[in-house]
Amino acid sequence: MTHPWITRLLETAPPRAKSLVMTIFGDAIVPHGGRLWLGSLFELVAPLGLSERLVRTSVFRLVQEGWLEANREGRRSSYALQAAARVRFERANRRVYAPPAADWDGRWTLLLAPAGSVDAPLRAAVRRELEWEGFALVAPGVMAHPAVAGDALADILGRVDGGRRLFACSATELPGARPLADLVAGAWDLAGVADAYERYVATFAPLAALLRAAGAPPSPRDAFALRTLLVHAYRRVQLQDPGLPLALLPSPWPGARAYALTRDLYRLLWEPAEQHLLHTLRREDETAPPPDSAFMARFGGLGGSSGA
Predict the structure, then answer these.
(1) CA-to-CA separations, 84 to 41, 80, 111, 164, in angstroms, rounded
(2) DSSP assignment, residue 172?
(3) DSSP secondary structure letter of residue 306
(4) What domains are there in the chain, each with its CATH number?
(5) Of 93, 97, 226, 272, whose CB count within 10 A is highest?
(6) pLDDT value at position 164?
(7) What residue spans of the chain are helical by DSSP H?
(8) What is the DSSP annotation of 61-75?
(9) pLDDT tens, 250-283?
């Protein structure tokens, strides 16, 4: 019997199939080599309300969009991350499983687009990619972020072929004379992100209380489903978060509470979830590896055995 909390969440907030498949790849499949058979995916999503038809449609679209590559062996199909997609998954995973940035040295990463150097399609592509990374437009032709790593920016510029027409630099001050608090409040929709974090906490805090009161972890199958729904919901909110240092955020910042809740629930669920995941993967591929070191370092370290 499926855990009643899973049933309740699927009835009140059913996830989109393609987005949920993306979450499963990022949270569960990337640490195990980034590849799985379609039959294994069917089994993993069975308690999450996705039909085989929806799964087939989702992976087909993800292949078309350049996220996955398909391989056939006889009548069986497997799916693996595209090389370029793996880089983006790894960068997203660093954001999802890391705590809010506590330290900030006062420096900003700026991306400059000199007047006339960038056409409209490139400007739109760069802005879309940078906003996903948390950048905001702080002055005409200037986008900024206080914490994004240089390798992420270089990857974006390479992907949109903008390296020769756009310029990146580091600075301790931003253009304009506005107070920093006013500039941050105007450039980033922090109120919207804070509200999303509050709703997330209100949804998942009862699950934490329920699991602790039970005194024992749920079944491996239910643990995997719960972990997937947890990460899916947190990922959707967290990837809207621009990732500003705590020094630039309202206090108390609900993202810190959401992170702590997700960390604690993940630590309760990860081990039985891994038992189900490995059992499922190895039914079709006995060489499926245990979780990698990056997985074991999530949320400050998971500890315990790997379930291998």
Answers:
(1) 22, 12, 22, 21
(2) S
(3) -
(4) 108-171 (3.30.70)
(5) 226
(6) 65
(7) 4-12, 17-24, 38-45, 52-64, 83-97, 120-132, 150-159, 180-187, 190-214, 220-238, 254-284, 293-296
(8) HHHHTTSEEEEEETT
(9) 889 999 999 999 999 999 999 999 999 999 999 9
Partners of residue 144 on adjacent β-strands: 110, 136
The owner of tokens 């400059």 is 112
CA dist 81 → 43, 69, 249 (Å): 19, 6, 35
Q: Which helix (H) or strand (E) holds 112?
A: strand 108-112
pLDDT tier, 305 (very low <50, low <70, confident <90, very high otherwise): very low
Looking at residue 138, what is its pLDDT?
84
Q: Is the pLDDT of residue 308 over 50?
A: no
Please tell me which of 75-89, 123-137, 218-232 the model is most confident about, judged by mean pLDDT: 218-232
In three-state secondary structure terms, 177 is coil
Looking at beta carbons, which pairs linking 21-24 to residues 24 or more positions away fall under 8 Å? 21/45, 21/50, 21/55, 21/58, 21/59, 21/62, 22/62, 22/67, 23/228, 23/231, 23/232, 23/235, 24/228
What distances in angstroms separate CA 129 from CA 10, 11, 105, 132, 160, one per listed residue? 31, 33, 25, 5, 9
Q: 């630590």: which residue's tokens?
A: 267
3-state secondary structure of 18: helix
Averaged pLDDT, 59-79:
93
**Secondary structure (3-state) at 81:** strand
CB atoms within 10 A of CB 241: 22
Query: Over the stretch 96-130, which tens digit does the pLDDT of each residue have?
Result: 998 887 778 888 888 877 666 667 777 777 778 78
What is the bridge-based pairing of β-strands 108-112 and 76-81? unpaired
249 against 84, higher pLDDT: 249
d(CA 224, CA 24): 10
pLDDT at residue 265, rounded to an integer: 96
Identify whether the C-beta of residue 113 lies closer than 8 Å to the C-beta of residue 125.
Answer: no
Report pLDDT for 304. 53
